Amino acid sequence: MKAAGLLNKILCFFSRNIRNRLLLLLISSTLFPLLIISISSYYNTSKLVEKQFIDTNLRIVQNTNDNLDNYINKMRGYLLSFVRNVDLLGILIHNTNYEYGSPGFTYIENSLLKLMSDGKDIDSVYFYISSADRLYYMDRQRLVVYIVNHPDMESTSWHSNAIGMYRHIYTEDTHITQFDIKSRDNQNNIPIGLIGKPKHVLSFSFAITNFPYRDVIGTVSINVDVRNLDSIYKKASVNAFENIIIENRDGSLVYPTEAPDFYYNFINEKDIRAEMTSATGSFKKTIDGDKYLVLFNTSEYTGWTVYKIIPMKILNASVNASSKFNLLLGIFCIFVVVVLSLLLANNISRPIVELANYMRNINVEHLEIKTTNRLDEIGVLYKSYNSMAVLINELIIERYKSEIREKQIQIKALQSQINPHFLYNTLQSISGLALEKGMTEIDNAISALGSMLRYSMESVEDMVTIKDELLHVENYFYIQKLRYEDNIKYSINVPDEFLKIPIPKLTLQPIVENAIKHGVEKTVSGCTIDINCFRQGDNVCLTIKDNGPGMSQKYLKKVVSKIRNNKNKVLGTQGIGLYNVNARIKYAFGEKYGLLIHSEEGKGTCVSLFLPLKR
Question: HSE (CB half, 13 Å, CA atoms) of 415?
Fold first, then answer.
């Protein structure tokens, strides 16, 4: 309701004068295209900023995976440089003494130290010599070689997998280092002892063979602390709201090793893989009730997938910041359009407003001529006004003459009313004389006739109440019963609540007159006329029903057609016909009110009048 009221006030303001309408036209013709352009620009800018945001972060994800590939490749390079050392291969093939202090042990120790020195990120090394059945271990914390004699290599995963890869590097993704190497000499198979603290590492293992033979003469495995990936990991994350996840080809988490539940919930989502139709891309995902933008890239080298998960609010903030300028520019343009439209509307409408004010303040009894020197459309308006003023002055004079003639006619009409009043007074005198002589029936008949004449002639109002009409009809019935006696019977059933409903004067008598003429005069047994009144929705329905001979459907259609086609006296009645009754009701109350006729041959006729319940 408040919105509708405000809209009505706005429309009323713009429709008040030509200046406001012109202002509305100018503003609409410029503001709507400007709004469309602004909205389109905002939409396109939002899409462009979103695309740039996605492309930028996608490049970061790709660079992260490239850096991981380079890092893994570098670690593999350290391993290959160790196993391809020709001197080391010679010692493994020909040497049999690897005890502490022996040349063989010293060379192995120096080789392991060089490997740790070259690969600063290598945390520890396992080196197993098959001919000696010994495992050599060195870590960065102590840089001391530990020896495990007769180790149970079958209990280690890297040894058997390295042999199975044959001349290829076996890479084991993030796992906890295995330090509890067991010796077969220990009958109870109890660990010799931990030689380092457990930590999450990446392992690269290789089986050394006596090429070109397939004999395995040793295996080596280097462990890299996954915390060394921090430098690569942190470059991919711009702020604390972004999440970076590195996942291997099996769907296991590579990094970070200590991840919140959110990370595991993400990689365990069943439909994540369905969104990834290519090696790199992006999609939007709802996780734990929040919306995120997910960017991903899968490496062909390692099979690892790097995910960058950014809350949508970060993206929306970037879009809103970029679109703010467009919004401010649009508001400024709207302000300029409104100001220019107001100035232009005032400039164009000012002469028209001046002419309108002049016309508003002129003397309507005599229009004065307004002179102007303008040659434009406003000058044409002034000239047309002057021509109109001359014509109106002539019409005013003619109107005065017409009013004088009308007054004269009214005087003659008042004089003509003397005769009806004389007739009514005469009837009253006869009624009094009949009453003196004891002739009550004559007195009643003359009184009824007098009331009818007074009702018809004296009242100047065209609208009366249903009660007045019914009193008039009862007088009419009384006079007709003097003529037809028992051949005419009637009943009036109108509730008191409808007696004050307005109705055009002399509405019921023509209908009752038709009922008597066609119902009583054309039957031998007489006729009964019933007048009823009831409510029908928001309307009042008055029915005048007789049990006379009725009408055939063909004749009924003819009567209804003539009433609708404005044919007067359709039933041959004298005075006011059914058309006049119908037309006067419609004129008084509207087109949806009026008269309806229902008739059936041999059963009678019913005329229904529809009037408004409230006026």
Answer: 6
